[in-house]
Each structure stands twice: as structure tokens, then as C-alpha cells.
Write a structure and sequence with these properties.
single chain
């Protein structure tokens, strides 16, 4: 056999082994974080009870709670990181459950909503008043500690009185 043929076969074998190792190292799907498009969840205290868009918006109005609107996709690295860290933090989950209506939107499954909300990158986190009017949005990953501070800032309507930096000094 020619050296070139041996080299091609070796590269193909390495690629196949690499794919097998990569697929084996992927974590199994974890139920209870996000199970399908916006399904409401019943789980332990470390899972967010996500709502579908339309139902969540109505629920926010009827309960007079602000909305946390989360745009994501399965292929998004930072979305996965949010799910594994920030969205599993017990203090974050508890605060969201008590004070917000949490809505999830998979941008691959609901491109129309992503376009309406002008989502350019993922993850995108929106905060809305109970009447569904916009407060603000955050693009990208946020660690649990800072996210909890943001949730408190939004829930207390401190954005009407002071900047986020001023709010942090009051904590």
C-alpha cells in the first residue's frame, strides 16, 4: 500500500474514534431542566417550572407577576451552561418560582417569536412587567449570584428608582 493510502486510513480512523469519544462524553439529557418547548414542569426544588409563551403571558397578567422570558436553542453552548449552572441554583429557582412567571422559547422551534423579539444571539433573557411590557433584556450567560441580584432588582421594580450598580450597593 502507498503511504498516502495508509495516511488517509489513519486519519479516517482517528476521526471515527474522535466522534465516538465525543458522543460518549456528552452528558445524558437531564429531565426537569427544559423538557421540550416550554413545558410546565413538576419536579424537585432545583428545577424551573417553565411555561409556554402564550400561557405564560396570560398567567403573568392574572397573577400580577413579572415575566422572565428565556430564548435558547439546543445547540447553544451558553444556553447549556445556563441550564447546568444558573438554572439549577436553588436560590435562583426558588426566587423565580415565588416572584416570576418563567417562559422558555426554543428559537429553532419558534422562529417567529424569536424574530418578533429581535433575538440576535443566544441565550437572550428578557424581563417584562406583569402587563407584558418590556423592562430590559440581557444577552448571554449570567452566573447564578449575579442573576439572583438581577431578579431582585427587577422584582422590586428598583429599575424605576435607581441604576443596577446603585441597587447592588444596597444589598
Amino acid at each position: 500500500m502507498k503511504k498516502e493510502n495508509i495516511l488517509v486510513i489513519a486519519i479516517i480512523c482517528i476521526a471515527i474514534i474522535g466522534v465516538m469519544v465525543y458522543n460518549k462524553s456528552k452528558p445524558a439529557k437531564q429531565p426537569g431542566i427544559i423538557q421540550g418547548e416550554g413545558s410546565a414542569q413538576i419536579g424537585d426544588a432545583s428545577t424551573i417550572k417553565w411555561q409556554k409563551y402564550a400561557q405564560g403571558m396570560e398567567l403573568a397578567k392574572s397573577r400580577n407577576k413579572p415575566v422572565f422570558l428565556y430564548f435558547h436553542a439546543d445547540w447553544c453552548t451558553y444556553c447549556t451552561k445556563l441550564k447546568k449552572t444558573t438554572f439549577r441554583d436553588k436560590a435562583v429557582v426558588k426566587y423565580l418560582e415565588e416572584n416570576f412567571v418563567s417562559i422558555t422559547v426554543d428559537t429553532d422551534k419558534n422562529k417567529k417569536l424569536a424574530t418578533e423579539w429581535k433575538v440576535k444571539g443566544l441565550p437572550t433573557l428578557w424581563f417584562l412587567k406583569p402587563d407584558n411590557s418590556k423592562i430590559s433584556n440581557i444577552p448571554g450567560y449570567v452566573e447564578a449570584k449575579q442573576f439572583l441580584q438581577i431578579l431582585k432588582y427587577i422584582h422590586t421594580a428598583s429599575y424605576d428608582k435607581m441604576s443596577f450598580q446603585e441597587f447592588i450597593k444596597t444589598l
